[in-house]
Request: fold
Amino acid sequence: MSSVITCDPCAVGVVNDDWTHLDMSCCCKPGEAHSDDCEAERMQASIVGTLESLGQLIHNGDADLPGYFDCILCSEIQCGGGHRFLTMRGE
Reply:
């Protein structure tokens, strides 16, 4: 079992299966299909792929040392606290 750190929005996504924060980066017209260069679609595909490789995640509280870090899921540089999740994959 190992631990990973996520940002606040991705922690909400993992715990509640709510990824609506990704809609903020979508520039597609409402009611139309996402374009090939839609940032929200690319990010969601990347997050789903990472989640599949990590396996089940169990929330384990706040990260120990706040500061700058890369979110394991969205790969964006974050400043502040993060959330620690334990992975259930075999090491």
